[in-house]
Amino acid sequence: MKPVHDWLDVGKELGRGGFGVVYRAVERASKKPVALKLLAPQPELDGRGGRELFEQGARKALSNNMPGFVQILAVEEDPDCGPYVVMERLDGETLRDSLRLRSISPVEALQIHFEIAMILARAHKRGLVHLDLRPANIMLTSLGIRILNLGLATLVAEHRTKCLETLSSMASFTGSAGYVAPELVHGGDTMSSRSPKVDVYAWGLMLYESLVGEPAIKATSTFEMLAEHIQPAPFPIPQAWVRTPMGPLLSQTMAKAPEARLFSAVEIEARMCGILGNQGWIEGLATSKSFASIPSPR
Asked: Is residue 99 within 8 Å of residue 105, measured between CB atoms?
C-alpha cells in the first residue's frame, strides 16, 4: 500500500476514459510532473476482477517500457482509491483531436503512421499486442509519437468480451467500436483475439481516416459500427489512393478477413520504408492538388 497523497500532489483532471480518470500530478520529492491514473469501476466486471486486470495490465506495461509508448513510472495501491498508475506526463494532442481540429497533409499523415508502425513493430517483435489501438490512444508530442495504454488494454479486451456476449450491454462497450477487428466481433478464439493482426487492422483504419479525412466506418452507433466490421464487403478506397503505392497497403491492413491481412506491424514498417523511400513520389504527393491537405471533417 502506498497512499497517493503520501508522495504526490494531485491537480486537475486531464481526461477520462472507460476505465480510468487521469489527473495532473507532481512527485513531491523530485518536483517531477507526472500523470496519475485511477481505476474507474465497471459493472460488467466484478470489482475484484476489474482491479486485478487493471493491476496486471499496468504491471505488464511497467515491465515492458519501450521507446514510443508512454512510460509507466509506478504501479501502486491506495487504501481508499484502490490501484493506480503513475505515468510520464505528456504535452501535446491526441491524433483524434488533431483530426478534428486541424488540417493534416497527406505527407504528415504518412509520417505519423510510419512512426506508429515502427513503435508497434517493437512490441510485436516481443509478442506484445496493444488490442485497443485508436486515434485517442495516439499522442502527438514535441518528442514524437507516444502510444498510450499498452498493457492496460488487457482490461479493455476483457470488458469487450463481456459486452459482446449480449446485445443488452452494447451501450457500455468500451473503447471505440470504429477500430475493432472483425474477428473480435465474431468472438474469435484466444489466439486470433490476441494476434498482432488486430493492431494491423486498427492501424489501417487510422491511416485511412488520416488520408481520406473521414472514418472508414460511417455508422455512429456502437451496434451499427460493429455490424459494418463484419460485413464481407471490403472498405472502398478512393481511386485517388488506389492508384498510388498506398493502395495495396491500405487493402492489406484493412482486410476484414484475418488471413488476407498483413501479420504484424513489422511488415507494415518494411512496406512503409519502401514507400517513403520513393522520394519522387513523396515530393509529388506534397505538391499534387489531388492530395490537398485534409480538412477537419468533424
From this structure: no
Q: Where are the alpha helices (DSSP H) in the chain?
A: 47-63, 95-101, 106-125, 153-165, 182-185, 190-193, 196-212, 222-230, 239-242, 246-253, 265-276, 279-287
| 223 and 247 both lie in a single domain | yes
Q: Average pLDDT of 148-156?
A: 67
Smallest Cα–Cα separation from 152: which of 214, 201, 205, 87? 87
Do 127 and 21 sit in the same domain of this protein? Answer: no
DSSP state of 53: H
**Dihedral angle at the C-alpha atoms of 214, 219, 220, 223, nearest 10 degrees?**
-140
- Looking at the fold, whether 80 and 109 belong to one and the same domain comes out as no
The domain in which residue 8 lies consists of: 4-88
- What pLDDT, in 10s, does the model give residues 207-242? 999 999 999 999 988 889 999 999 999 999 999 899
Encode pLDDT of 260-292 as tens digits.
999 999 999 999 999 999 878 888 887 776 665
What's the pTM? 0.86
What is the average per-residue pLDDT within 174-179?
A: 75
Cβ neighbours, 10 Å, residue 292: 11
Mean pLDDT rounded to a whole number for the chain: 84
φ, ψ dihedrals at 58, nearest 5°: -65, -40
Of 266 and 52, which is predicted with more confidence? 266
Higher pLDDT, 268 or 158: 268
100 and 139 fall within a common domain: yes
| Nearest-angstrom CA–CA distance, 227 and 211 | 24
Same domain as 21, residue 78: yes
**Rounded Cα–Cα distance for residues 230 and 182 (Å):** 5
Query: Does residue 45 sit in the same domain as residue 169?
Result: no
- Do 16 and 164 sit in the same domain of this protein? no
User: 45 and 130: one domain?
Assistant: no
Q: Are 131 and 141 in contact (CB under 8 A)?
A: no
Domain count of the chain?
Answer: 2
